[in-house]
Amino acid sequence: MKPRFPWFSYLVVALGSIMMILPFLEMVFGSFKGPDEINSADYQLLPNSFDFHNYAEVFETLNMGLLFKNSIIVAVSVTVCVLLTSTLAGYALTKLHFPGRDTIFKFILVTMMFPAFLFLIPNFYIIIHFPLAGGNDLFGEGGNGGLAASIVSLILPFAVSGFGIFLMRQFIMNIPDALLEAARIDGASEFRIFWQIVVPITTPALVTLAIFTFISQWNEFIWAMLIFTVNDQLATLPVGIQMLQMTLDPTLTRALVSAGLTISVVPVFLVFLCLQRYYINGMVMSGVKE
């Protein structure tokens, strides 16, 4: 049946799109404004002139090379780890039969119900007192920050994702068992079945998970800020931009912060732009039915 008022649906979508894009436009256009213009009582969205002075000042104030390097290493490393662990676990929990399989999956689902900040202090304690890391002894004492001295501290806590395992399991469930059994009859090993059959079929789901994970890690702030308090050489872009806002006069840094945020959004925008087709396919095909 055709809707009686199709224009109303289009109107709602259009209004929602405008509401979502306005803060982004405010950030981009604000990055070209001066302190007087951005703090003026007479608000206007467009700047009087497009001046790139704020971008030059951000690069001068912040060590953008170090921030970008740390953010890219962390985001890419965590994404690769999550894709690997989620696909392997999803395959094992779906197509392999072993005692306790369903119990393990239920336990993974339970971990998704806890808020992430609940594990901040335990994870930080583990990182600081990790045995034989950063000068620690076998009992995790006597060192200088433990794993926090290495960029591994920004990667390790996020290397496994309960959501990633759930997503890949739901996608792999749609692969016919007969296809895998035919490969086993032909003499294919489990690794070959996984690598040459399962992984190519699950490409849309893998790309979807990669986008979610990359964006999440690129914007990660709280954990990166904790590690920054131990080792300031491990600062990422969100931490650097926040420190810029905290150390200078807020009335003078609003435009600088907008410029820094605009710069930080560019890699995420490019990643999503390149992979959006696979993202849509993955969301449509994954499903959540048992």
TrEMBL record:
Domain ABC transmembrane type-1 as annotated: residue spans: 68-275
Record-level GO BP terms: transmembrane transport
Highest rank taxon of the organism: Bacteria
A GO cellular-component term linked to this record: plasma membrane
CDD domains tied to this protein: TM_PBP2
Gene3D superfamilies membership: MetI-like
Transmembrane segments: 7-25, 72-93, 105-128, 148-172, 193-215, 256-280
UniProt entry keywords in alphabetical sequence: Cell membrane, Membrane, Transmembrane, Transmembrane helix, Transport
Location in the cell: Cell membrane
Keyword Acyltransferase: no
Protein name: Carbohydrate ABC transporter permease
UniProt record similarity statement: Belongs to the binding-protein-dependent transport system permease family.
A Pfam match: BPD_transp_1
Membrane topology: Multi-pass membrane protein
Keyword Membrane found: yes
